[in-house]
Specification:
Strand content: 5-15%
Shape: elongated
Largest sheet: 6 strands, parallel
Structural class: alpha/beta
Number of strands: 14
Helix content: 25-40%
Radius of gyration: 26 Å
Amino acid sequence: MTENATDQPLAGRTVIDLTTALAGPYATLLLAGLGATVIKVENPATGGDTSRNNAPYLGRDGLALSRLHDDDMSVSMLLRGRGKLSVTLNLKDPRSKTVFTDLVRHADVLVENYSPGVTSRLGIDYAAVREINPALVYTSISGFGAQGGPGSGKAMDAIIQALSGVMMTAGEPGGDPVRFGLPIGDLLAPLYAVVGTVSALLQAERTGHGQHVDVSMLGALTSLVACEPFDAYDAVGLEQRTGAMVPRLAPFGILPAADGHVALCAPTDAFARGVLRAMGRADLVDDERYRTRDRRVERADELHALIAAWCRDLPRAEVIARLTAEGVPAAEVRDPLEAVRDPLVRERREVVPPTHPRHGAVADLSATGMPIVFSGADVGLDGPAPVLGQHNDRVYRELLGYDADDVAALAADAVI
């Protein structure tokens, strides 16, 4: 890895971060990890980003369910605020307009995740910002898109999961909907937002003109659902929800072992034959019932029952060893605590240990890193999350050129 900041892909780019909660802050976290200077604008009147008040908290005494000391920081902010500069600015105060205008003039990107209509009421929508800085890329992340959605137009992850159809892709046939344990709607939309933002930056380099990048959580997740042809499955009589096993790819699914579970993915002829050999059933390799994929799909339940009976009483390590010896893709099913401590993802900095901005590493925690490895660029999320307004002087005085009296007056009037 290189250590020169100019080797970061987005070095020299400035992002105004008007986001809160998860979807927006995750997008700006990734932009920070790619090297952009991310200025997180937080409302001093409300205590800043809502995630600053999410339990649990980390402080000098370690982790706690409630805040024990004034400098305890929410783990949510600890993870999502890394690598960002925090300034305070009350955008509802008319006196903030000049400060906001100065920020926009110095920026390349603005990211917001307000509900539709809010930015217009505040006078900070794309139409207003474009007048200040025509080259700026203005990225919006919302539940349903900039045009708004049903009801209040507001959306939480569970609402998006419900509307996207994803809840009905997992679980047993005929069973209740299954909510993904991860807030997948909140986490997927920012990935598309970053792709759109970087693409718009490249176009702005050629044209000199920025644009509005509009990403909806519903659209992002529903487009992902549409990657699988569920309508085609339904038309030919295949179950859309299959539980632990996937008959149309047999042998394929999650199988119980004596001490845990094993994930098996063997949809091809070569893999399926490897499974049978691993089981000590080479006699079935040329059996007409399992010789081709179509035959295996027809007898999926029978084949899966045969494999399950074999591995049920074996340690999962032995099951995996036998399968991998035959070249079959297989792995243990881990819980999150195991998974985030895998030496491989730690070595590649795809998962990293976060630190408290004042007390350092006072708990064994894991946080998302930058899951992209560049051969000629430096990326990462090593800087701790900021306390509220920590960088007011740095941004307002050094970047915008305000003098000490200007900053003091803004603070005295609760504008910042």
